[in-house]
Design goal:
The protein is about 40% helix and about 15% strand. It is α/β, with parallel strands linked by helices and about 350 residues long. The chain has 3 domains: about 40 residues; about 200 residues, D-Maltodextrin-Binding Protein, domain 2 (3-Layer(aba) Sandwich); about 100 residues, 3-Layer(aba) Sandwich (D-Maltodextrin-Binding Protein, domain 2), CATH 3.40.190.10. The strands form 5 sheets. Strands 10-9-11-8-12 form a 5-stranded mixed β-sheet. Helix 1 runs antiparallel to helix 2, helix 4 packs across helix 10 and helix 10 crosses helix 13. The longest helix has 28 residues. It is globular, with a radius of gyration of 25 Å. The chain starts with a helix and ends in a 29-residue tail after the last helix.
Length: about 350
């Protein structure tokens, strides 16, 4: 555009040249101001300011999903999604404990986010176009899941293709509801859905045999199975009928806060890839390779660009751990859920977990 104006400038009268000169200067001013504005907006964030002034991060979480988000008798939360909330707190305050957890059901979660009941939804929530367009912005994927079915072994059912004419417990207002309808339609099977406003009531109905099968994400089925009086009495069928990329959701048009949430997760993933853990984060020094130095905040100014301390990522790893540590602690093979890494392994191990570099 500027080159075109200069060309016109060379072929104009003196009066026109004066006007063209003013036009060129105006365009340059807009370009410069736009660059400054874009740089500032990378940090400017209504939510980040609110969080810092309040002194804690408020996260919307599942009411009771072992391995991802659940509370003990003292009301203390733990799980993969809870760790992400604590990581955000560590990034913002240098303290992973400056958190507050708001239990929220599947049907109320989006309205609650929009009405500012919490700062980020760290609740097993599938990333879809519809949700992204209507309810806010996803800041990454912290667990790749897929929908499945669970039945009582006494039913004799061994495949989802044997579920014709069954009654099915399903949570209302979820991708689970829609995926089940698609699956039964595609396979020309009939079923009777029993809808519930949250997963806990759906599970209770299944436990009481009000329905013959339960459907939700397979991670949720694994959590439900181990919570039963006799887990061996239940079978999770092998079929996976959908893609369920689960991740944190923030309100739209707040890119500064979205970046804080996104890079808190990316920090944990990059740390695992680099072999940096809670145990060795404090041993990273100037002799280590550059990527480790950047993650530890020893070089560069990456925290400042997010509106945080340059130790933001080191604080996350020191207090919460890397992605692999969090995974194994809450849902891995040594945990009660016993879930293999599978697609949730690092990309270097054939999985889908991959994060942009800190540089």
């Amino acid at each position: 555009m500027i080159n075109s104006l200069i060309h016109l400038f060379k072929n104009q009268t003196s009066a026109d040249k004066k006007a063209a000169s003013l036009c060129v200067r105006s365009v340059l001013t807009v370009v410069v101001l736009g660059t400054v504005s874009n740089t500032a907006s990378a940090i400017d964030s209504v939510t980040l300011d609110t969080v810092q002034n309040r002194g804690r991060v408020i996260c919307g979480v599942n009411t009771n999903l072992p391995g991802f988000s659940s509370a003990n008798s003292l009301g203390e939360y733990s799980g993969l999604d809870v760790d992400l909330c604590r990581a955000i707190s560590a990034a913002v305050f240098g303290d992973s404990e400056k958190t507050e957890f708001v239990p929220v059901s599947a049907t109320e979660r989006f309205g609650a986010l929009g009405s500012n009941r919490f700062d980020v939804l760290t609740r097993n929530t599938t990333w879809t176009l519809d949700r992204n367009a209507i309810h806010g912005d996803y800041a990454g994927v912290n667990y790749y899941d897929g929908q499945g079915f669970m039945v009582w072994k006494s039913s004799g059912v061994r495949s989802a293709l044997e579920l014709d004419r069954v009654s099915l417990c399903v949570s209302r207002g979820t991708t689970t509801e829609l995926n089940a309808a698609d699956y039964f339609s595609i396979n020309k099977m009939r079923y009777t859905p029993l809808y519930f406003d949250d997963s806990s009531t759906a599970v209770e109905a299944y436990r009481n045999k009000e329905c013959e099968a339960l459907t939700t994400d397979r991670s949720g089925l694994a959590a439900t199975r181990i919570s039963q009086d006799n887990p061996d009495a239940h079978r999770i069928l092998s079929e996976i009928i959908s893609k369920e990329p689960l991740g944190p959701l923030v309100r739209a048009n707040d890119s500064g806060w979205e970046n804080v949430v996104r890079w808190s997760l990316n920090c944990m993933i990059n740390a695992e890839e680099l072999g940096i853990t809670q145990r060795n984060i404090d041993q990273v020094n100037a002799s280590d390779f550059p990527a480790a130095q950047r993650l530890a905040g020893l070089v560069g100014d990456f925290g400042t660009k997010l509106g945080l301390s340059n130790s933001w990522c080191a604080d996350i790893i020191r207090q919460v751990g890397n992605y692999g540590e969090s995974y194994e602690r809450h849902v891995g093979e040594a945990s009660p859920l016993g879930l293999k890494r599978g697609v949730n392994d690092l990309w270097t191990n054939g999985g889908l977990i991959y994060a942009p570099p800190i540089r």
